[in-house]
Amino acid sequence: VQLVESGGGLVQPGGSLRLSCAASGTIFSIYETGWYRQAPGKEREFVTRISGSGGITDYADSVKGRFTISRDSAKNTLYLQMDSLKPEDTAIYYCNTYPPGTRWGQGTQVTVSS
Asked: Distance between CA atoms of 76 and 19, rounded to whole angstroms?
């Protein structure tokens, strides 16, 4: 299954973005999946995950209360709604299974800057 991230861009602090992750096949209703990010000069880190049933979510403390993960299984698409963005949220964002597999997509760049 191929995963393709989109929706990134440049946004001012306090702004919002919604990222999308489109899958080439059925994955989100079967596997636990999540979002990860990698800031310049840092290791890739966990951001959030959602269970196969969609009933359980988990967030990194740094994004809790600001980011929301969701999915549309009929469209094979995973979303990440990001509100109250901060400069420290600047990173390339990736989707993958949880725990992540070894293959990663190209990600989508999010830049938070005034």
From this structure: 14
* pLDDT tens figures, 64-107: 999 999 999 889 999 999 999 999 999 999 999 999 999 999 99
Handedness of CA 47, 77, 95, 88 (dihedral sign): negative
Q: CA-to-CA distance for 78 and 7, rounded, in angstroms?
A: 12
pLDDT in tens, 29-51: 788 999 999 999 999 999 999 99
d(CA 113, CA 103): 30
Q: Please tell me the distance from the alpha carbon of residue 24 to that of residue 9, in angstroms, as a whole number.
A: 23
Cβ neighbours of residue 1 closer than 8 Å, sequence gap 6 or more = 23, 24, 25, 26, 27
